[in-house]
Write a structure and sequence with these properties.
The two termini are about 40 Å apart. The protein has helices spanning about 1-15, 20-35, 40-70, 85-100, 120-135, 145-150, 155-180, 180-185, 195-250, 255-270, 270-275, 300-305, 325-335, 335-345, 360-365, 395-410, and strands spanning about 295, 315-320, 350-355, 375-380, 385-390. By secondary structure, the chain is mostly helical. Helices cover about 65% and strands about 5% of the residues. Helix 1 (about 1-15) crosses helix 7. It is globular. The longest helix has about 60 residues, at about 195-250. The chain has a five-stranded mixed beta sheet with strand order 1-3-2-4-5, with helices on both faces.
Length: about 400
């Protein structure tokens, strides 16, 4: 258990370097710079960020454990299998980007950038940023983390929660440590007018996250969901613009009717369409990054029927929302060298897609001791014990595994 807790803490720290978390973590870098000369405020925001991360992690872990106790085979990142959750994240990320562009301010009067986020509003914002960061971190699986999460899902609830808490503490540790030790913060540049440009620049990673999530939503729920979320993004942007106008009018002592109009637009034109997402049927297409024509449909029954017949089997457990999976597809599994190795060894390639909830995939992940994606399994040609490949692939790792699986079969 202590090993799993240590691995979870270390995996949480490494998780900060994953691309899915960068847009949110960049907001905290801006906060650190903003409070360069306010150590007490920096420490308070560090604790608020830590609290948001830990509380949200415990809520997610609790929901995950309750679902598994009720018989549902779900794993890490389960909430991203819901089109509604994806749509809400899209709108939150878009609102964050518009806020960084200065279109409106959240819960505060329009102020100069050096003052934005001070006081109680800043603490609430830090806590919410921590919550958002841990939610968007779930598509990523850092080194040391997968084995710890897989172990946690096989343990009693208290042990599981201890491991997930260690993961959250590791994730929040870098920002919290910098906020508590002025010596570390001294390397940061002093606040100034240049921060306006930095705020605008940080909006673009948020927009990149929006684009990625829109692609994931289309993969999950089809073209109808794509049209719906694009319309919601347009309405949200217009509502945010009206809200910004209302804030400026309020500062000048004028009536702020645009704020009421913005609220009405959001409630009437965004909330009802989001509620219909769960009923949309999926019209997903094969991922362009994989050789779908050569892939055999995965199921536990198919594996049992094919394995041990003289051909190795490579199973790719993947999902559109798993960034590590997409990188591995493009840098390893889709390369000509790996495709040639599959052809040479007569490997049967299977794709187990978990973009939408698939109980068979979740059960397989649990059987292999993994709490989340990605997972790559090679079944030897002789039907022997399957081999689990590393989470970060290279073409050489895959080719060597296929060659070894083939040689094992030839020895029979």
């Amino acid at each position: 258990m202590l090993t799993a807790i240590a691995a979870a803490f270390l995996g949480g720290m490494i998780l900060n370097l994953m691309p899915c978390v960068f847009p949110v973590i960049s907001l905290k870098a801006l906060s650190l710079i903003r409070h360069h000369d306010q150590p007490a405020q920096a420490r308070a925001e560090g604790l608020a960020f830590l609290g948001g991360v830990v509380i949200t992690m415990l809520l997610l872990a609790g929901a995950l454990l309750l679902a598994r106790a009720g018989g549902s085979a779900v794993g890490w990142g389960f909430q991203l299998q819901s089109p509604l959750v994806i749509a809400l994240l899209i709108l939150v990320m878009l609102a964050s980007a518009l806020n960084l562009f200065g279109l409106f301010e959240v819960g505060l009067s329009v102020q100069r950038v050096g003052e934005v986020g001070s006081g109680r509003g800043g603490l609430t914002g830090s806590a919410l940023t921590g919550a958002l960061a841990i939610i968007v971190a779930t598509p990523c699986s850092a080194p040391f983390m997968a084995s710890a999460v897989g172990y946690a899902l096989t343990q009693p609830p208290l042990v599981s929660l201890a491991i997930f808490t260690a993961l959250a503490l590791g994730f929040a540790a870098p920002f919290t440590l910098v906020s508590f030790f002025p010596l570390l913060a001294r390397v940061l540049p002093a606040p100034g007018a240049w921060m306006v440009t930095l705020k605008h620049a940080l909006a673009f990673p948020m927009l990149g996250a929006v684009a990625w999530l829109i692609w994931v939503l289309e993969r999950q729920a089809g073209s109808a969901a794509l049209a719906l979320i694009l319309a919601c993004c347009l309405v949200l942007s217009f509502a945010a613009w009206l809200y910004g106008i209302a804030q400026k009018r309020r500062m000048m002592g004028r009536r702020h009717w645009p704020q009421h109009l913005a609220t009405a637009l959001f409630v009437l034109l965004v909330v009802p369409p989001l509620a219909s997402l769960t009923s949309l049927s999926s019209q997903t297409e094969a991922d362009e990054g994989t050789d779908a024509a050569a892939a055999v449909a995965w199921s536990p029954q198919n594996v049992d029927a094919i394995k041990g017949q003289g051909k190795p089997i490579l199973v790719n457990f993947t999902a559109s929302w798993c960034i590590t999976c997409q990188v591995n597809d493009r840098t390893s599994l889709s390369t000509q060298a790996v495709k040639a190795a599959m052809a040479r060894t007569s490997t049967i390639y299977m794709v187990a897609d978990s973009t939408k909830y698939n109980p068979d995939v979740e059960q397989a992940l649990s059987d292999f001791g993994r709490g989340g994606l990605p997972l790559y399994v090679v079944y030897p040609a002789d039907g022997g014990k399957p081999v689990v490949l590393p989470q970060v692939l290279t073409p050489r790792i895959v080719i060597d595994a296929l060659d070894h699986a083939t040689e094992t079969g030839k020895k029979i």
